[in-house]
Amino acid sequence: MSNRDSNTPNGAPPKNLVDTAAANDSFHTLSNALEAAELTHVLKDSGPYTVFAPTDAAFEKLPKGTLENWLKPENKAELISVLKYHVLPGRTSSVEVEQLTAARMMQGQSAPIRKDGDKLSIGGARITERDIASSNGVIHAIDTVIVPTKP
């Protein structure tokens, strides 16, 4: 199911990635984490990007204390790494994602992509909502926070 026009009432142009996520009731935790990591300017002012956006429920599945730890100022670099692991340079629709076996994320590592019937996943996280349009990219909601391997 596509939400391509869900944030474009009366033909208005879509919002940027950050404002689109902030307007969606499923992405409050992600929006707060982007602010804490000081990444909002990147996802507002440049692009295009494809964001595999963990829902609030995805963040709740993390082990207790993980998110709180990432949000500490001394762990900002780790938070940035995790968040950039959810961003793919370029605007990639779900149909295009289905054609990939892996995606090289902004963070630098590749995340595996799997298609099983009509289910699509990246890094082990199932894509639960596809093709949420924004002016500088697209958002695909995922049900799990994906974490890059440590170097």
Could you explain how this protein is built, in words?
There is one protein chain. This protein has helices at residues 17-23, 28-36, 40-45, 56-60, 66-70, 76-84, 94-98; strands spanning 49-54, 87-89, 102-104, 110-116, 119-122, 125-134, 137-142. The model is unreliable at 1-9 (pLDDT under 50). The protein has a seven-stranded mixed β-sheet. It is of the alpha+beta class and 151 residues long. A hairpin with a 5-residue loop joins strand 3 and strand 4. The protein has one domain (9-142): FAS1 domain. It is built from seven helices and seven strands, in the order αααβαααβαβββββ. The longest helix is centred in the N-terminal third of the chain and has 9 residues, at 28-36. The chain is globular.
